[in-house]
Design goal:
single chain; 234 residues; alpha/beta; seven-stranded parallel sheet; 7 helices; 10 strands
Length: 234
């Protein structure tokens, strides 16, 4: 299995390990990082903010962005990234899809063209309870490129805690496709808590299926998984 599993039950140590992985990539010349959002990433970005790492010569590409809320909305991923990382650790260029674009399909296509012009040295991802990566929901073809997606109700419910009500949670997003994610040289997956057990066990069981998008990572040759779950590496 090309996946390297690291079980670190102390979350503080787990996130320090994640920072070490990012630091090692920087030392080895990495200059393009794929970034993720969500609750799993909050301690990571806190650790990065408090680190001595310098990203001013690097650029970033984000996995996704909601459709239909303004960039300055507190729960847009533009706002999230600015608040959680970029204000403290600026990049020379930070690329996030424009969820306010008049033609969102055209924006998704343009984002894919941008990503094809880059080489992502390290792509950081979390995983949803249903196994989604980015906003690629179950059933997304593994050959998919950046696209507009209708968010599953389970995903909207999971994200509702960040909004005043589920009615405020956007129903669409622009997301990197699965094939887009897999083009990265290296991938770091962080999976925290019992709610992620189904997805992580599916990944480590070794069956590749579009019904559980995270299993697409089995097709990649350089994946590190950090988790606090006791789980068999089969």
């Amino acid at each position: 299995m090309a996946i390297k599993l690291e079980i670190i039950q102390n979350q503080e140590q787990l996130y320090k390990r994640a920072v070490d992985i990012i630091s090692n990539h920087l030392k080895n010349g990495a200059d393009t990082f794929g970034l993720a959002t969500g609750g799993t990433m909050l301690p990571l970005y806190e650790n990065l903010r408090n680190s001595t790492l310098d990203f001013s010569h690097c650029q970033s590409v984000n996995l996704d962005e909601y459709v239909g809320i303004p960039k300055d909305h507190p729960e847009s991923y533009h706002s999230y990234m600015k608040r959680q990382l970029f204000d403290a650790k600026p990049f020379k260029a930070a690329n996030i899809p424009n969820g306010e674009a008049q033609d969102i399909q055209k924006e998704a296509n343009a984002y894919e063209e941008l990503l094809k012009s880059l080489t992502v040295d390290l792509q950081i991802v979390g995983v949803g309870e249903n196994g989604h990566i980015g906003f690629n929901e179950p059933g997304t073809p593994f050959g998919s490129e950046s696209h507009v997606v209708e968010l599953a109700e389970s995903t909207r419910e999971a994200n509702a805690r960040f909004f005043n009500s589920i009615e405020e949670v956007p129903k669409k997003a622009i997301t990197m496709g699965i094939s887009t994610i897999l083009r990265a040289k290296s991938i770091l997956l962080i999976a925290i808590g019992e709610k992620k057990r189904f997805a992580l066990e599916a990944l480590l069981n070794g069956e590749i299926t579009e019904e559980i998008p995270v299993t697409s990572l089995l097709q990649h040759q350089n994946v590190i998984v950090l988790t606090d779950l006791n789980i068999d590496d089969r």
